[in-house]
């Protein structure tokens, strides 16, 4: 089953509880939360207090994406705040194996993120311990960017490798995914689709999620 993960980066924070409830009604199981520190990426977003508030407002799985220069420092802080899953960038984790194992020891699932210019081969030695992998289909730091087509090639490479290794490794994608291209990413091998602007900038987030779920289901029968 393909999962749609609404990204609250694009939500209206004056109506955050209401907008979370809208996507909950569409049947999503996860929310994606982008944490940016102004150093690893040129933007600042939310901190632990907001994650704690979201944790009180929903029982959905919180998929926390750390776009920070010191993931070892902040991963435990966000897990304490309510993160169920924590994503760290390969480019920011100096000792990636240790970071993954630390997140898991803190009780959360550990995912690894690859920026658009980072090849899939950089994850070869951690695929057997990571819980999931996120392929960035935009350069991280801002919402609303255009999809980078080469991300599909990276998804196909990663999908082929996980099949070779026999790994139950979900592939997630983040950036520029909309109703128009969701079928392409699903056919390439993506399991979890992060989408922000397409959902929360629409007139009806619930209906938009349902439409994306339908398009994803229809695309699962064929992979290219």
Walk me through this protein's architecture.
The protein has about 220 residues and is of the alpha/beta class. The protein has one domain (about 5-220): TIM Barrel (Alpha-Beta Barrel), CATH 3.20.20.70. About 35% of the residues lie in helices and about 20% in strands. It contains eight helices and eight strands. It has helices at about 15-25, 50-55, 70-80, 95-105, 150-165, 180-190, 195-200, 205-220, and strands at about 5, 30-35, 60-65, 85-90, 110-115, 130-135, 170-175, 190-195. It has an eight-stranded parallel sheet. α3 (about 70-80) links the parallel β3 and β4 (about 85-90). α6 (about 180-190) crosses α8 (about 205-220). The model has no long low-confidence stretch (mean pLDDT about 95).
Please supply descriptive tags for the structure shown above.
224 residues, alpha/beta, TIM Barrel, eight-stranded parallel beta sheet, globular
Briefly summarize what is shown.
By secondary structure, the protein is of the alpha/beta class. It is built from 8 helices and 8 strands; from the N terminus they run βαβαβαβαββαβαβαα.
